[in-house]
Amino acid sequence: MREIVISDGSIRLGQFLKLANVVESGAGARSLLESGDVQVNGEVENRRGRQLQRGDVVAVGGAELRVG
């Protein structure tokens, strides 16, 4: 599991996916989320604006990313 450190207490899912280099743009994040391939804490998530907190785990493409 890879930890992605954020500077604030929370981050939006779309921004997090860009920060983690999973997607290159907001449009890429939107299409990835619409495909149903992203899970947050074990549940499928399709909202790009979902607020993530430190300790949340995002699973995408076989990789797990923890918000740090």
From TrEMBL:
<protein>
    <submittedName>
        <fullName>RNA-binding protein</fullName>
    </submittedName>
</protein>
<dbReference type="Pfam" id="PF13275">
    <property type="entry name" value="S4_2"/>
</dbReference>
<keyword id="KW-0694">RNA-binding</keyword>
<dbReference type="InterPro" id="IPR036986">
    <property type="entry name" value="S4_RNA-bd_sf"/>
</dbReference>
